């Protein structure tokens, strides 16, 4: 932590939850930090705290953000050091990611001069709505002025509504900034059949992401077993690109189901865009997202129709039979039916893929995401 004399110029603090080189979907949050510095940098010192620093992302290195190796979380025990950091750097606004909307630490932050505490929520999944007495108590607590954040930003409308219905944050304190990805990407193709040794007569159903149970890969493998052994579907191949703790377990499952010939679990791949461009359609069986996944947006950008479950924390970017197909969550029969629908109808695949790409360009580009972030931030913390 840098020790510099307290300055009169106000400070704005960005807080990272992970090491500076964690990767994954944090590239989007990193782009938000750069945009916030562009918005406030003329009249604020913009600081970014990482709990650990290995390699800094290029866009962060090229920005005017002041970097610190320091943990500043509401749940940490170093409260005196946190308070000293906030006071010393005259922090007026804190921008957290996935931190609690309520914390008994927030009054201490405010005593150090912090005027606005913002929480940007990217946490996936469904939550149980509180009922009766619990609902009333949460509603009262979440209206207390000092222990709650000033604003809660949802990564999608689903996350915003979840904050209202489950966390009981007053609607006037909630916002949403829709996730987005760049419109520019590598439009080249590779020959998936040759590169992954897939027979030419098979259509490729692709999926990307972390190889863990939460992403739902075992469900797809069970669907593949049903399609191959019971429905004699021999013109389909499942290609999964991604590394993670359960990859070997998925390989063992494919072997035990006797479907290894029809499944490629490729691990981490460095040219995912080229792979998507050469695939026929996508499936995203995740048990939970923030309303939709960045992977789903990548499928849409590549003009791939995507099959998703009807879990509302997954399917909000997909319109049934327009941009993709929606099956009943955890229902193998329903999943198989939707796979067969897109597999056996080339015209439908083409139409849905085109519609998905058009929907992405209109609604989910990174430029639109940044424009929305600027608007929301200025509403919460107006430029002085």
Descriptive account of the structure:
With 384 residues, the chain is α/β, with parallel strands linked by helices. Helices cover 37% and strands 17% of the residues. It is built from 14 helices and 13 strands. The strands form 2 sheets. A 7-stranded parallel β-sheet has the order 3-2-1-4-5-6-7, sandwiched between helices.
Intertermini distance: 27 Å
Highest-level CATH class of the largest domain: Alpha Beta
Radius of gyration: 23 Å
Largest sheet: 7 strands, parallel
Task: Identify the overall geometry.
Answer: elongated
Unreliable stretches covering 5 or more consecutive residues: none
Mean pLDDT: 95
What class, by secondary structure content?
alpha/beta
The DSSP helix count reads 14
Kindly give the count of domains.
2
The side-by-side strand order for the widest beta sheet comes to 3-2-1-4-5-6-7
Q: What's the count of strands?
A: 13
Provide the succession of SSEs: EHEHEHEHEHEHEHEHEHEHEHEEHHH
Oligomer: single chain
Please give a handful of descriptors for the protein shown.
384 residues, alpha/beta, Rossmann fold, seven-stranded parallel β-sheet, six-stranded parallel β-sheet, 37% helix, 17% strand
Concise description?
Helix content is 37%, strand content 17%.
Topology, pairings included?
Blueprint: E1 11-15, H1 26-40, E2 45-50, H2 58-61, E3 66-69, H3 79-88, E4 91-97, H4 106-111, E5 116-121, H5 132-141, E6 151-154, H6 157-167, E7 174-176, H7 192-195, E8 203-208, H8 217-230, E9 236-241, H9 247-256, E10 263-267, H10 272-277, E11 281-284, H11 294-301, E12 306-309, E13 324-327, H12 332-343, H13 346-363, H14 366-380
Parallel strand pairs: 1-2, 1-4, 2-3, 4-5, 5-6, 6-7, 8-9, 8-11, 9-10, 11-12, 12-13
Helix pairs in contact: 1-14, 8-12, 11-13
